[in-house]
Amino acid sequence: MVSTKKTAIIGATDNPSRYAYLAANMLKQYQHPIVPLGINKGEVAGTKILDLREKPQVSDLDTITLYIGPQRQPEWYDYIIGLKPKRIIFNPGTENPELENLAKQNGIETWEACTLVLLRSNQY
């Protein structure tokens, strides 16, 4: 059996032209449970998008995959670190040395990578 990795998608959207949308669907396709977190209501890959502003608690999280740019990340630092994921994936355009350092100080692995490529190449 393939191990599944519960993944929070920060910046989740129901807009099919966005990479976060593609990632949600591909994660589901590869049978990883998803927790879509965004600021707009909607649904992606058959899962309701939770309101990021409410900072919902999520347990047993393996991965956070980021789809919000570094300029929007600071207000979410405490929340992201507080979710205690095993790793954070900084997708292209979301790289942020400040958040990466914070994560590492808290024992969280950081990857600068593309979730879609990781899934397709069996590196997820």
TrEMBL record:
Residues annotated as domain CoA-binding: 5-119
Pfam families: CoA_binding_2
InterPro entries registered for this protein in UniProt: CoA-bd, NAD(P)-bd_dom_sf
Source domain of life: Bacteria
Protein name, as recorded: CoA-binding protein
Taxonomic lineage: Bacteria, Pseudomonadati, Bacteroidota, Cytophagia, Cytophagales
